[in-house]
Amino acid sequence: MSDSADRILTAATALFAARGYAGTSLQAVADAAGMRKQSLLHHFASKPVLRDAVLASLLARWKDVLPRLLVAATTGEERFDAVLGEGVRFFDENPDRARLILRELLDRPDHLQALLREHLAPWLPLVTAYIRQGQDSGVIHAHLDPDAYVVQAVLMAVTHFAVGAVPGAVTANEPDWEPRRLAELRRLCHDALYVRPMG
Questions:
Q1: What distance in Å separates the CA atoms of residue 182 and residue 32, rounded to the nearest whole number?
Q2: 37-49 b/e with 16+ CB inside 10 Å = b?
Q3: Which among 7, 113, 103, 91 has a CA at the least distance from the CA of 50?
Q4: How many domains are there within the chain?
Q5: Domain match, 27 and 58 both
Q6: What is the reported pLDDT for 43?
Q7: Are 39 and 63 within one domain?
Q8: What angle do CA 150, 84, 53 make, to 5 degrees?
Q9: Do residues 169 and 123 share a domain?
Q10: Is the pLDDT of residue 15 over 80?
Q11: CATH code (residue 33)
């Protein structure tokens, strides 16, 4: 993908996340990307095409990265740390990604479901298979529903970054609040999965 197309996708991600799809014009995306609208249309022929490209670019990263992480790790907890760590890095480097996914979940759930099936279906069985192996060996809670767990864990991570500093208002903006929130997200995901609580 060209640098211009990357700039367009980055600008569109930020604007769609902040204003919503309906509240964002192609001209606004072009302005934010530092180009003329006609140049944007050379890369993305319409606003719906641009929206689909933005979402596909977010999901494609997981399709590429997750199988590699799962294969590289040698234990279940290493896989847990690798996948959760990648999720944290992915959303932390650009929280607009989480905000956009949350907006799409609320505004167009059917369309997002179709994209998730298209882009994530190949690796989701890998994750749930690892969970079932852990259940068979007694390391992971036997009553846990692998598919539902993955969905809930992803939703918690997306929500964590999408709402950003808002929960900090409850704690009077304590300086260590974000690391504490991240540590608690990790503990919740870990302890819901593994029989042995996180040490």
A1: 31
A2: eeebeebbeebee
A3: 7
A4: 2
A5: no
A6: 96
A7: no
A8: 75
A9: yes
A10: yes
A11: 1.10.10.60
Q: Read off the amino acid at residue 75.
A: T
Q: What is the DSSP string of 132-199?
A: HHHHHTTSB-TT--HHHHHHHHHHHHHHHHHHTTGGGGGGT--TTHHHHHHHHHHHHHHHHHBSSPP-
What DSSP designation does 21 have?
S
- How far apart, in whole angstroms, are the C-alpha atoms of residue 24 and residue 42? 18
Q: Which domain holds residue 20?
A: 1-45
Residue 90 CB partners (closer than 8 Å, separation 6+): 61, 97
Contacts 24+ apart (CB under 8 A), 45-50: 47/21, 50/8, 50/12, 50/26
Same domain, 118 and 91: yes
* 128 and 152 share one domain: yes
| 169 confidence band (pLDDT: 50, 70, 90) | low
- Give yes or no: residues 60 and 158 share one domain: yes
User: For residue 35, is it within any domain?
Assistant: yes
Residues 41 and 56 in one domain: no
How sure is the predictor about 170, in pLDDT bands with cuts at 50, 70 and 90?
low
One domain for residues 179 and 145: yes
CA distance 26 to 50: 9
CA–CA separation, 151 and 101 (whole Å): 13
The CA–CA distances, whole Å, from 118 to 15, 17, 154 equal 24, 22, 17
